[in-house]
Design a protein that fits this description.
The chain is built from three helices and 14 strands. By secondary structure, the chain is mainly β. It has one domain: Beta Barrel (Porin). It has a 14-stranded antiparallel barrel with strand order 1-2-3-4-5-6-7-8-9-10-11-12-13-14.
């Protein structure tokens, strides 16, 4: 199957399908992805929907990226997202659109609607429904066009469900837990191809006096060939804010990746940047770059 071979050849090991890896904003990416207990904004739509419950004002967020710069192998790789959030008396509502694209090969899109609300003084619950769409582009390749995989078309859509919890059992401790793809949606073309159900748990330890937040996370999901719950990925992160939260410096990482980034906040506007380096790529790689811009319609100031 030519397209499968091209995909395995082109995409580095860390560039898994967008349906299996959460679409994360630069803040989360700079912390090595260890942000299950951190986001209290609209970008939580794709990570831990319970984070929507922390919205203090309506907001809009845009992110663009360049993945594995210098390792394109003939195709440009990118992840982009747009999210919006609206807090109300009933709870917070969110909407998000995310895209993973390998130019000329394939595109995956996620459309998500979410809701979260505080269920006690220290806990929030969230639920999101999402439409997963992906399509391949065989183009002028006759072998790919005649591949049985594409006999019934080159695209497929499926509905998925995520749930999340965030809690603050102690003044300096936040914890988060999420189950992604609860119903294991089938995105297969010629045969079943179910997105793995995934469990993610994390914590954030905040030292307010020093402006430091330490985070940790563990993701667990089934592997395609090695049995249930065989893939476990830990990650850690550290954030330091300065100037009363106007700027934040972040570092993080996991077993195969190191990350860093910066965040700036001024009034209603925010800017985030992150860069990540994978140890599985060649020395010629320039890393993965994410840039995000936020507008909050009624800024409250301070750090997120």
């Amino acid at each position: 199957m030519l397209m499968a071979l091209l995909w395995a050849t082109l995409i580095p090991p860390r560039a898994r399908a967008a349906f299996q890896e959460p679409l994360v904003a630069p803040q989360a990416a700079a912390l090595g992805g260890a942000s299950m207990a951190v986001p209290n904004d609209s970008t939580a739509m794709f990570l831990n929907v319970a984070g929507l419950g922390g919205l203090s004002a309506p907001e809009f967020y845009l992110m663009a990226s360049r993945l594995y710069a210098g390792q394109d192998a003939g195709a440009s790789l990118s992840k982009n997202l747009m999210t919006a959030g609206l807090p109300t008396r009933l709870g917070s509502f969110g909407f998000g659109v995310g895209e993973f694209k390998a130019t000329g090969l394939m595109t995956e899109r996620t459309f998500s609607l979410g809701f979260a609300r505080r269920v006690s003084r220290w806990a929030r619950l969230g639920l999101s429904g999402k439409l997963l769409q992906h399509g391949f582009s065989p183009g002028g390749d006759a072998l790919a066009q005649n591949d049985p995989v594409f006999a019934q078309g080159t695209s497929r859509s499926a509905f998925g469900l995520d749930v999340g919890l965030m809690a603050s059992p102690l003044p300096m401790l936040d914890v988060g837990f999420a189950v992604r793809n609860v119903n294991r949606p089938d995105v297969g073309l010629a045969s079943a191809d179910r997105v793995p159900r995934e469990f993610r748990g994390g914590m954030a330890l905040r030292f307010a006096g020093a402006g430091v937040t330490a985070t940790g996370e563990l993701a667990m999901r089934s592997g395609p060939a090695t049995g249930p719950w065989s893939v476990m990925t830990p990650s850690i992160g550290l954030e330091k804010t300065v100037a009363n939260g106007l700027a934040a410096f972040r570092v993080g990482g996991g077993p195969t990746e190191l990350t860093a980034g910066v965040g700036l906040r001024r009034g209603s506007f925010g800017f985030d940047y992150s860069i990540g380096w994978s140890r599985q790529l060649s020395p010629g790689s320039f890393g993965t770059h994410l840039i995000g811009v936020r507008y909050q319609f009624s800024a409250r100031g301070g750090s997120r």
